[in-house]
Specification:
The structure is a homodimer. Chain A is α/β, with parallel strands linked by helices. In chain A, about 45% of the residues lie in helices and about 20% in strands.
Amino acid sequence: MTDSNNPSTEDADRDARHKARMVRKKEVIDAGIAAAQDERGVIVITTGNGKGKSSSGFGMVVRALGHGMRTGVVQFIKGALPTGEEMFLRRFPEECAFHVMGEGYTWETQDRSRDVAKAAAAWEVARGMLRDPAIGLVLLDELNIALKLHYLDVEQVIADLRARPPMQHVVITGRGAPPALVEAADTVTDMTPVKHAYQQGIKAQRGVEM
Amino acid sequence: MTDSNNPSTEDADRDARHKARMVRKKEVIDAGIAAAQDERGVIVITTGNGKGKSSSGFGMVVRALGHGMRTGVVQFIKGALPTGEEMFLRRFPEECAFHVMGEGYTWETQDRSRDVAKAAAAWEVARGMLRDPAIGLVLLDELNIALKLHYLDVEQVIADLRARPPMQHVVITGRGAPPALVEAADTVTDMTPVKHAYQQGIKAQRGVEM
C-alpha cells in the first residue's frame, strides 16, 4: 500500500516470510491442478454423523444452477413438512426437477414393507434422472439411509450410477454410506460432529435444521 | 401392504424387529427434541480439510430463503472468476445480499498488507449484516481462512458475533477454525476427507468444485 510508511522491521519480515510461503503454496497447488486433467462427471458422497451433509448437497445444486446446468433432486427420506430447500427450489421447476419420497421418516412410519415400496418408487424417479444427459447434476439426498436400511439394493444402485451420462455429476448424502458405494465414488467426505446446538438445549431452528 | 400374502417367516421376523427398533429410536429422538426448547439464533461452523464446507453454508442459505428469511453472504476469499453460487444468488438481490472480498486467493496475490486491508473492509460489510435484525441468516464464507492468516482479530470477530440480533443465525466456513471461535459456536462440524477426485487425476469440475 502506498500510504504505509516506515513499517516496523518485524512487519516487513512477516510480510516477506508470508510472500515466500504463498509463492511455494501457489507452486504446489498449480502443479496439482495441472496434473489433474481428466474431465468427467463425478460421484460425491457426504456421510458421517455431523451436520451439513444435505446442506452441502443443496449447495452443490445451487452451484450447478449458477453455471446454467439443469439439476435433479430426489429426497429418499423426509419429515411431514417440506424443508426450506424444497420450498425454495420448487420455484424453479424448469431448472430443478424436485422429487420427494412419500411422507414420514422411517421411525415415524414404523412400517418396513411400505418404506421399501416407497424407496423403490423413488429410485425409479432417480433412475430416470440418471438416464437424462440434459441433467448436469443429480442430488440423491439421504440415499445412504435407504441403502443402510436395505430398502434398496446397493449393487443395483451402483450399476445405475455407472450407466449414467459420462459428464453427469451425482451427489449422495446421508450417514452410513455403504463401503461398496464409497468404493464407487470419486470424492467422499465424512462430516464429523465436533459439537451440536441440540446438546446445549437449543431447539431445531427454522432455516438451520429444517 | 394389502397384497403381500404369505410373507416368509424370515421377512415377518425382520419387519417385527425393524418396527421394535424404530419405536425405540422414535422415543429417544422425541425425548431429545422435547428437551431442547431454547429458541435463538445459532452459530454454525463447518471446518476441516474435506470437501463440502462452503457448499454446506450455501445449502443453509437456500434453506433459509425457502422459509422466506432474508439472508446475507460475505465471501472472504475468492478466485478470479465468480462461483456458481454467486451467479445464482445474485439473481435474488432482495432476498440475498451478496458481497465478495476483493479479487484473488491469497496465494495468487502474494501481498499481505493488501489482503489485510481487503479483509478489514469485508468485515465491515459483515458487521453491517450482523447489526441488521431483518437478516435471518448470515454466511461468512471462508472467514476461518482470514482468521487463520491473522488478517482479522478473532476477539473482535467474536465480540461482533455476540452483539448480533438474538434470532439471527450465522454460518462460518473454512478450514482451520480458531479454537476461540469453535468455543463461541453452537454447532461445529469437521469435514474429514475420505477421498477426493483430484487425487485420481480428475480436473476440478464446473458445478462441483467451482
